[in-house]
Amino acid sequence: xxxxxxxxxxxxxxxxxxxxxxxxxxxxxxxxxxxxxxxxxxxxxxxxxxxxxxxxxxxxxxxxxxxxxxxxxxxxxxxxxxxxxxxxxxxxxxxxxxxxxxxxxxxxxxxxxxxxxxxxxxx
Length: 123
Known about the structure:
By secondary structure, the chain is mainly beta.
């Protein structure tokens, strides 16, 4: 009987620990996001649009400025985290983002260092 009670107590703590998370899964990323990279060395790239869309069971991403959009590569979304690669003027940029509600926070890592990235989801 004690083993059964202990098992229920452990399972209860497990489920309570996940009740407050906002992961929401990959579908919560779908939509248009306004992206800001305030310290970008190229001012024209300090703000952009990031779009996640679903085709069948696959989520795809594209990023760009105005009409110039490029597909993101190596997109991986797990829970509330997304990671992908974009190329800007031939430079590989690894982007890691964490979603909390309708906001994104993360980093863009490239050959000269890393930059802070923020985003808000468009309504």
